[in-house]
Automatic annotation (TrEMBL):
Record's protein name: Myotubularin
Active-site residues (renumbered): 374
One of the protein's GO biological processes: mitochondrion distribution
Reactions catalysed: 1,2-dioctanoyl-sn-glycero-3-phospho-(1D-myo-inositol-3,5-bisphosphate) + H2O = 1,2-dioctanoyl-sn-glycero-3-phospho-(1D-myo-inositol-5-phosphate) + phosphate; 1,2-dihexadecanoyl-sn-glycero-3-phospho-(1D-myo-inositol-3,5-bisphosphate) + H2O = 1,2-dihexadecanoyl-sn-glycero-3-phospho-(1D-myo-inositol-5-phosphate) + phosphate; a 1,2-diacyl-sn-glycero-3-phospho-(1D-myo-inositol-3,5-bisphosphate) + H2O = a 1,2-diacyl-sn-glycero-3-phospho-(1D-myo-inositol-5-phosphate) + phosphate; 1,2-dioctanoyl-sn-glycero-3-phospho-(1-D-myo-inositol-3-phosphate) + H2O = 1,2-dioctanoyl-sn-glycero-3-phospho-(1D-myo-inositol) + phosphate
The Tyrosine specific protein phosphatases domain, residue ranges: 344-390
Positions of the Myotubularin phosphatase domain: 164-537
Enzyme class: hydrolase
Organism of origin: Salmo trutta (Brown trout)
Residue span of region Disordered: 1-28, 577-607
Record family assignment: Belongs to the protein-tyrosine phosphatase family. Non-receptor class myotubularin subfamily.
Entry EC no(s): 3.1.3.95
Length: 607
């Protein structure tokens, strides 16, 4: 994680005293002052002299510090100094490198694979099992759930001015959209997660559908994830509904309740034909019939049209990002860069996801309601609905609105964060791991590049979100669904990421933001308009010239600082004017002269 996104906290008590590791207590006498300030609740576990095999500048001697939250390395005498600051949650794999009999310099040590596009390698001396203690401690604290320990989010004692858990209130968000209406109602049928254990407790469904109808439909949808409303267009009343695939199977089962339910959704705003967007390639949807799934056939859903969006599954996306990592870390093969990038297919997948969301948004703008699903409705479906909503609704393009969008479409509707990221789990080869959310944030970044004035938030917010997707410092992205978060008391026992963001909101604001409430954004989803997000994927490589803040943005920030300085001076003059000693000055001024406060309102930043 970028060190810039870790605020510094003062901590008066010595965390060594509370160390839970016997190894740590033995090592504590040898510990020296740590070069980075610990977070409240963070405790040092072990220090060790070590050699960092830097892929950019070669072997670097230094000391590694491991806490219950991070791995921190600081070089001893390198110039410039080399530091690493890695949250343990970002570590995906820890392996021993070489053995006691290994020959060659720096051939004995540790190999660490990270989830944030980098790998780390450390070498130790080949004597007396020198790596055993650090390997055991690193393995234990990087994968706490695999060792019966708590994730750091439950140990953190951070306090913030803002309570991030209050950002998203479902009823408030539905009211903002103008719900309920005479065609759509709010139901609490899932209050105890009995209808669907991976859905939120508050759902919006067609007014005509009874609770019994919902129960019947749930039996015909994978995981009970029935079609429910995500967003409604205020003017034309077209809706985006999301769900999972129907359980058609090889025998072509039908469910009259499901067919009628989709027709009720269609009728709600007089849509001639309901468009069902199936995110999968058609061949995959057909293959899913073999495992009891399937899709809505034209013969049974006669008032609907089915469109396949050809977005590949979680396994294809995982392999694509692996290939991307291979070509950007540690070295970029610049002579074959374009062909190498093309061979990863990463931007091709970004294009397909964006293209699908554009189709959804366009259909809604035209007044036609849509239903979106993939297989289970928690991966590609979340990508499509949230991106379409970002295009259609300017509220989601604000700093807080974007937080609401993530809480609503991703967190509350059960994107499987724990399975896809593997928080605290040592099973790095788990086939459920996949960068679906990373891919979505990449799509958002592509939109911010194409519409630089349309988003209130900046790139730093997107990178902070991805850093803490892995870090386990906050409870926001933990577990697979709301029911699991309730069981594990996430809201009462952990801090929200939005507490951090909203307590320092100015750091995440885009200075070029221009609010346009009715504007629909249609990004260009062609390969020549998409670019690799270099400042995220290649940020660890010092040899690659990272995209610095643009000269225009830099100048704008300087002018804002200058304006603040002038305002401060005006306030000081105002205070001087109001003092008794300066009363003769104010009496002698012209009666219609503007006061300093009046002048303030007319100050404009020259740009």
């Amino acid at each position: 994680m970028a060190s810039a996104s870790i605020p510094v906290y003062n901590r008066s008590n010595n965390p060594l005293e509370n160390s839970s590791s016997q190894n740590a207590s033995r090592e504590s006498l040898k510990m020296e002052p740590l070069a980075v300030t610990l977070l409240p609740g963070e405790e040092r576990v072990i220090d060790k002299d070590i050699m960092y095999i830097c892929p950019f500048s070669g072997p670097v001697k230094g000391k590694v510090f491991i806490t219950n939250y991070r791995l921190y390395f600081k070089s001893a005498d390198a110039d410039p100094s080399v530091t690493l600051n890695v949250p343990l949650g970002a570590i995906g794999r820890v392996e021993k490198m070489g053995g006691a009999s290994s020959r060659g310099e720096n051939s004995y040590g540790l190999d660490i694979t990270c989830k944030d596009m980098r790998n780390l390698r450390f070498a130790l001396k080949q004597e007396g099992h020198s790596r055993r203690d650090i390997f055991d401690i690193l393995f234990r604290y990087a994968f706490p759930l695999s060792h019966g320990l708590l994730l750091f989010a439950y140990l953190s004692q951070e306090k913030y001015e803002e309570n991030g858990w209050s950002v998203y209130k479902p009823m408030e968000e539905f009211r903002r959209q103008g719900l309920p209406t005479d065609k759509w109602r709010i139901t609490f049928i899932n209050d105890s997660y009995e209808l669907c254990d991976t859905y939120p407790t508050i759902l919006v469904v067609p007014f005509k559908a009874t609770e019994e109808d919902l129960r019947k439909v749930s039996t015909f949808r994978s995981r009970g994830r029935i079609p429910v409303l995500s967003w409604i267009h205020r003017e034309n009343q077209a809706v985006i509904c999301r769900c999972s695939q129907p359980l058609v199977g090889m025998s072509g089962k039908r469910n009259k309740d499901d067919e009628r339910y989709l027709d009720v959704i269609r009728e709600a705003n007089g849509t001639a034909k309901l468009t069902i967007y199936d995110a999968r390639p058609s061949v995959n949807a057909v293959a899913n019939k073999a495992t009891g799934g399937g899709y809505e056939g034209d013969d049974t859903y006669q008032n609907a049209e089915l469109v396949f969006l050809d977005i590949h599954n979680i396994h294809v996306m995982r392999e694509s990002l692996k290939k991307l990592k291979d070509i950007v870390y540690p070295n970029v093969e610049e002579s074959h860069w374009l062909s190498s990038l093309e061979s990863t297919h990463w931007l091709e997948h970004i294009k397909l996801v964006l293209s699908g969301a554009i189709q959804v948004a366009d259909k809604i703008s035209g007044g036609n309601s849509v239903v979106v699903h993939c297989s289970d409705g928690w991966d590609r479906t979340a990508q499509l609905t949230s991106l379409a909503m970002l295009m259609l609704d300017s509220h989601y393009r604000t700093l807080r609105g974007f937080q609401v969008l993530l809480e609503k479409e991703w967190i509350s509707f059960g994107h499987k964060f724990a399975s896809r990221i593997g928080h605290g789990d040592k099973n790095h080869a788990d086939q459920d791991r996949s960068p679906i959310f990373v891919q979505f944030i990449d799509c958002v970044w592509q939109m911010t590049k194409q519409f630089p004035t349309a988003f209130e938030f900046n790139e730093r917010l997107l990178m902070t979100i991805l850093d803490h997707l892995f870090s386990c410092r906050f409870g926001t992205f933990l577990y697979n669904c709301e029911s699991a978060r309730d069981t594990n008391e996430v809201r009462s026992k952990t801090v929200s990421l939005w507490s951090l963001v909203n307590s320092d909101s100015t750091s995440y604001l885009n200075p070029f933001y221009t609010p346009e409430s009715s504007r629909v954004l249609y990004p260009v989803a062609s390969m020549r308009h998409l670019e690799l997000w270099v400042t995220y994927y290649i940020r660890w490589n010092p040899r690659i010239r990272q995209q610095q803040q643009s000269p225009v943005e830099q100048r704008y920030m300087e002018l804002l600082a200058l304006r603040d300085e002038y305002l401060k001076k005006l306030e000081e003059l105002q205070l001087t004017d109001s003092s008794p000693n300066s009363s003769h000055l104010s009496n002698s001024s012209a009666p219609n002269a503007a006061s300093p406060t009046q002048h303030i309102t007319h100050l404009h930043t020259p740009f």
